Amino acid sequence: MAAPLGMAILGLLAPSPLTGYELSRTLAGAISHFWQMRHSQVYPELARLEQAGLVFHERLPQQGKPDQKRYAITEAGRAQLREWLASPLEARPKRSEIALRAFCVAQGRLPEMADFFQAQAEGHRRRLAGFETERDALEALPAGVRDDPRSLVFASHAVLMRGLLFEQASATWCTWLAARLRKAAAAPG
Amino acid sequence: MAAPLGMAILGLLAPSPLTGYELSRTLAGAISHFWQMRHSQVYPELARLEQAGLVFHERLPQQGKPDQKRYAITEAGRAQLREWLASPLEARPKRSEIALRAFCVAQGRLPEMADFFQAQAEGHRRRLAGFETERDALEALPAGVRDDPRSLVFASHAVLMRGLLFEQASATWCTWLAARLRKAAAAPG
DNA sequence: GAATACATGTAATGCGTTACATGATTTA
DNA sequence: TAAATCATGTAACGCATTACATGTATTC
Q1: What average pLDDT score do residues A168-172 get?
Q2: What is the pLDDT of residues B28-41, one digit of tens each?
Q3: What number of other Cβ atoms are within 10 A of residue A30's Cβ?
């Protein structure tokens, strides 16, 4: 199997048990930069994981609300997650709407397209600035915490750096393309 | 509407008419780095575009094969494509399985995870080298062709540079992470 | 009084992939 | 003779998003 959907949930349950609701909330946080799912996916998937023996739940009665079901990962779940983590990853190319637009740029009005890519570049640069601030905050933390791969800080730092490098690459590309389009639009012909 | 699926087809039909089969073949080429679709999607989508008046086809009888249906873009199709090209693009975050793995790295065996990210880095660097060769070939072309945004060379160059910068960013990130994991795995504790 | 948070689910819809279906021609 | 190319379609399946469904407690 090794469906990333289930592995995402196992990964979030690994540090501590959570309810379906809390899982959806967590997914709306920092993780949402590279992973999303709705509660309508979370609940059925938790049931599937439970049937596979990878998680279990305890039921906590509440007043005025449906019973809380707090899910925890099992040893089998941890083993499965561990196995998935280093398993071969097939690098299938992803769809990119902006690349598609760039490819079709000949069909557009040049000054307008230059503006479009310039605007995209600015968006990327804004997000990049935010990530840089976050990175500086993380890197100001004591090295003992920051360098421990078992800590949440390490994991956050890792995914933050990915976001940062990608925003940087995107900004560079959009700026480069916008400049080329602008030059061509200004040129005679 | 402005479904990117249809716009991709319009973009490919814009330079010259194509059959559904040729469209699927084209999509298997350089475009496949950032856009994919199967013939099972192409044929119904062409029908939808035709009903919307964005393309039309002429039927060419053949012997021993089904009639060829050669599709061409209409003026309305060109207008629609032009409008879509510079329309606001909502930047929704994409799923990344490798980012998910990085985030869950605490649950894995450290040396194994270091190897994993090192291997990923090498894959990215291999693809990067290929892109660099392609780029050099394109940039050796006369500036008159290369700098004309209406040429296929310009479009190819644009998407190639995107791929190149992204492979570079990915390689940098994977190498950085692998090194951090290796250092932590070697450290006492 | 309205909106939001808590809390769990199901159903409908859309999009993409895989598999099914058919059949001639060319190449290894 | 087996496979690949040409050529067009439909059907089944899986995954993700949106909408439906219910109900309390708290905050503005």
Answers
A1: 98
A2: 788 999 999 999 99
A3: 16
Q: How many CB atoms lie within 10 A of CB A144?
A: 9
CA distances to B45, B56, B65, B68 from B62, rounded to whole Å, are 23, 19, 6, 7
Whether B66 and B72 have beta carbons less than 8 Å apart is answered as: no
Measured between beta carbons, the chain B residues lying within 8 angstroms of A13 are none
- Cβ-defined contact of B102 to A78 (cutoff 8 Å): no
**Contact yes or no for A169 and B173 at CB 8 A:** no
pLDDT single digits (tens) A75-100: 999 999 999 999 999 888 899 999 99
What residues contact residue B94 under an 8 Å CB cut-off, 6+ apart? A34, A94
Q: Quick one: average pLDDT of B109-135?
A: 98
**Which nucleotides of strand C are protein-proximal, with an atom < 7 A from a CB?**
6-12, 15-20, 23-25
* Sheet architecture: strand order including A18-19: A18-19, A68-73, A55-60
Q: How many CB pairs under 8 A join A and B?
A: 210
B150 pLDDT tier (thresholds 50, 70, 90): very high
Average pLDDT of the residues of chain A? 95
d(CA B68, nearest CA chain A) in Å: 26
Name the residue type at position B184.
Answer: A
**Does residue A185 contact residue A114 with C-beta atoms inside 8 Å?**
yes
What's the distance, CA A75 to chain centroid? 26
- Tally of residues, chain A: 189
